[in-house]
Amino acid sequence: MPAFYISCRLVIALVAGTLLVPLVLVGGLRYLTAYGTWPSISVGAWAFLLGWYLAFFLGFFLPVRLRSATGRTAVDRKRSDTNFWTIGLSCVAAVGAGVMTYNFAIVRGFGFDVPVTELRSIVIEAASAGYVGSWLGGVGRLFVSAIAVAWIVACLKWKDLSWPALTILLVSTTAVFAYQAKFEGGRFFSSAILLASFFATVGFFVSDVGREQRVNILAVRPIHVAPVAILLLMSVGVAAYNEMVFVSRGARSAQTFAQLKAADAPAAKKVEEAVGLERLAVDQNPLAVAYLQYAANFGIDLSSARDSHAIATSYGRAMAWIYLTQGVGEFDRIFRIESLRHSAGLYQFSQIAQVLSKLTGKDMRYDVAENLSNYGTYITLPGSLYVDFGTVVALVLAVLVGICLRAGVESMFAGASTFLAILAPILFVVVITGPVTTLVPNLWPCAFWTALTQIPIRTKSP
Hints:
- About 65% of the residues lie in helices and about 0% in strands.
- By secondary structure, it is an all-alpha fold.
- The chain has one domain (about 5-215, about 225-250, about 360-450).
- Strand 2 (about 210) and strand 3 (about 215) form a beta hairpin.
């Protein structure tokens, strides 16, 4: 068998380099002017964002070794444990999908006929108007998040995974995706699960072929390719769904604008002033209209953008440009607020605020609409931590996240099943998407399910 060895330290360095790519990409895309020109970012905002990542990489490369990153034999998982937790967590997630479907369709009365793009708009408007949410929705989301940990456990120990466990995992994943697609969009959640699973698969490969701190990268066998093939097929489906959501949302947005324009509404006049009447040919280029009004709402200077026909034909790329680059600018708006009221963690951990509100009878939620400048937009992971805790605590947390991720990666590459080893793919996803948005509100319940997997499973002796 051919061999080409690289050190595990180099693999870890490649992980760090991969985490840096999105930051560079977002920074570069902000200066792309084909679809418009973003307002400039303040020096203070850039300094905080770069300082946060410097603090993270400082923690990642610090010579600190946590106990969970040491020793393979004490943390090896039996085959039965892998299948037990994969099946158990998959079933929990399927129950969660059922609970959330019941919550949206029956309790909140949306039924099954409301398009997801329209439903999302209704939900966002309800949240901004003060809707707290129900305990049923909170429990359902907690249960649904178990599917991410189920995939990580399965991918980390793919050799131990049985066919019944894989079948149940796939069926449960289908149920979760169906609920997400029907009621919540779920683009980021589905993409996060896939990305975490891909990273866990890398951990499985390194732990399986690694010997004496070296990895033979040519020692690929069918057992290593199988999870990648399944995840790639799932990625194709998610990508197709994401494109469909973008296009349907654009068509609906253009239709709404046409109605506002026909009614001579102030909202339509505002967009016309920002974009220019000659560029809003609603009947000819509805997708271009949708993009242009969306960009105008973000304050993007559209004078450098191409003509409406060109924007319509590259609508998907134009929208992706906005989605990837809006977070830095929206954080800058917040960073410029002189007397910002920080949320003490209740911005990203809003579910805790809901629980506290129920227990105390007082509204403990952080009023996003009142305190932040643009409700419902992305503000990056560092920006979200800034809203929660301020500059100093956000930087300290960056160091701690770096330390924990490094320890988890080392433990994962050693073939261990520790808390940090299973949580490492989640931390990886949270950090790599950080320059765009924060996935902490979606993924923090995974820490609970990860901790649950550390409970020893007793089996009868033969």
